[in-house]
Amino acid sequence: MAEFTTEAKPAAPDVSLDAQGLDGQEATAILERTRACVDPELRAAIDSLPGSMRRIALYHFGWEHADGTPAAGNAGKAIRPALVLTAAAALGGPGAREAAVRAAAAVELVHNFTLLHDDVMDRDTTRRHRPTAWTVFGDADAILAGDAMQALALQLLAEDPHPASGAAAARLAACVVELCAGQHTDTAMERRGPAEVTLDEVLTMAEAKTGALLGCACALGALYAGAGGEAVGAMDAFGRQAGLAFQLIDDVIGIWGDPLRTGKPAGADLVARKKSLPVVAALTSGTPAAAELAVLYEAPYAKEDLERTALAVERAGGRDWAQVQAADRMARAMQELSRAVPDPEAAGGLLALAEFVTRRSS
Q1: What is the pLDDT of residues 15-63, one digit of tens each?
Q2: Are residues 220 and 107 in contact, defined by beta-carbon separation less than 8 angstroms?
Q3: The CATH number of domain 21-357 is 3.40.50.360
Q4: Which domain of life is it from (predicted)?
Q5: pLDDT tens digits for range 144-185
Q6: pLDDT tens-digit profile of 241-296?
Q7: C-alpha closest to that of 218 among 340, 357, 325
Q8: What does pTM read for this prediction?
Q9: How many whole angstroms from its chain centre is CA 214?
Q10: 332-346 average pLDDT score
Q11: Is the pLDDT of residue 191 over 90?
């Protein structure tokens, strides 16, 4: 069983409030600029799809209602394309940022392909405060729309005349394979008993499912800036560590997040009996609360047990562990970032984005 260390720990990130202060303002501005320049590229790519898949993709991004009428919905925060563009600018200046817009759109398409598929596999009924695509259009059509988005992503890079596009396409394709492997591990874990999953396994799975694409986004930005192999590798490592911090906080939100902000029911991960990072940390803590949690997780979900289950995770140390781990992963991310971009001013945008995603409440 994993044990919780008693060594001095870094301060845990605050997940009760959105990112605030100058870093939060800078990150928000970066995300807004990213949506403004990447959305037209995304729309053009999606408009090239056959009608049935185009309709589902436009609905998923929040740009149309289910009946095909225009909507001004939420297309997501654009964190991954923002990392592509900000990494390119940090290493190559504004010109590199402008040249990487197509790569940023490709990363966002891959991200949304995974969301469409994840929602089907997890049977999630809400995404971005509206019904998920599979609940509206059916499993098969939602899966096909996701497949089409993945193909569009690689097509965007294949048709990009930028000299880095070939290396970027190969890296993104390898990332998709890693994402699929991580998802396979995740679904396999859900079929195992609560006591059969180790913390190392779930951390490795989280890096593949979440860290890999954030790392790939940063690496693609570095490639489009003309960076060398060492800097590209450091940027990938930065994104992966920030991605793990992101997933740790996301898992905390999945248990204790406010439904009005997350767009998902309270305790959605507990209802689904997901072996998220805080849950596995709690289950492997060797505490009396861990034993109680294991019994609750073995039993079918009962609404009256939801609060008790969340409390058991917290009493077993799962919430504290996740927050401390998130801070540790962020510290590692900063070390990698300083290797790739030694100038703190040039690295400021990437730092602001990393802080933003680990200091959020939805």
Answers
A1: 333 334 556 899 999 999 999 999 999 999 999 999 999 999 999 999 9
A2: yes
A3: no
A4: Bacteria
A5: 999 999 999 999 999 999 999 999 999 999 999 999 999 999
A6: 999 999 999 999 989 988 777 766 778 889 888 899 999 999 999 999 999 999 99
A7: 340
A8: 0.88
A9: 7
A10: 96
A11: no
Q: What is the total residue count of the chain?
A: 362
